[in-house]
TrEMBL record:
Residues 1-22 are annotated as: Disordered. SUPFAM superfamilies: Tropomyosin. It comes from the Eukaryota. This is Tropomyosin. Coiled coil: none annotated. Keywords: Coiled coil. Residues 13-22 have a biased composition (Basic and acidic residues). Pfam families: Tropomyosin.
């Protein structure tokens, strides 16, 4: 009987230990369930944040795409601007060359005008001299004709004598 009592005492101790462990495990389960609930809420919160961030990423990717297309257009416009600036520079150089050519031509024209004026004065002087020579020639031709007429008359008179 004593064995039975000892056995019973041992069983009671074991039952008390088991009950104590069960209480511990129940407390641990409650703690883990609370922790699990907190983790699930955190997961839900993080999932929501993740969805919001994914939406934000999509929005930002769209903006990046828009900005890239704008940058490409800007780059294209920049190359067009550079091309137009080179054309402007070439045209300005052509204008400067044309201005130099015009100045040179104007100088040559002025020199030609001066020479032309000089030669016109010479031509007028030569024409005046020619007119004088022609007048002298006509006068001499008239004198010659008169002298010849006189000579012919004189010869005719001599022949008549």
């Amino acid at each position: 009987m004593e064995q039975i009592k000892q056995r019973m005492t041992a069983l009671r101790l074991e039952a008390d230990e088991s009950a104590s462990k069960a209480e511990e495990y129940k407390a641990r389960v409650k703690s883990l369930e609370a922790e699990n609930t907190a983790k699930e809420q955190e997961i839900t919160s993080l999932s929501h944040k993740n969805q919001m961030l994914e939406a934000e990423v999509e929005k930002l990717e769209a903006q990046v795409k828009d900005h890239k297309s704008i940058a490409d257009e800007s780059s294209h416009a920049g190359s067009q601007v550079e091309s137009l600036q080179r054309k402007i520079q070439l045209l300005e150089e052509e204008v400067e060359e044309s201005d130099r050519t015009i100045r040179d031509l104007n100088d040559k024209l002025r020199q030609s005008d001066v020479k032309s004026g000089h030669y016109e004065r010479k031509v007028h002087a030569l024409e005046a001299a020619r007119d004088q020579w022609e007048a002298k020639y006509e006068e001499m031709a008239k004198k010659y004709a008169d002298t010849k007429k006189d000579l012919d008359n004189f010869i005719a008179e001599i022949d008549n004598i």
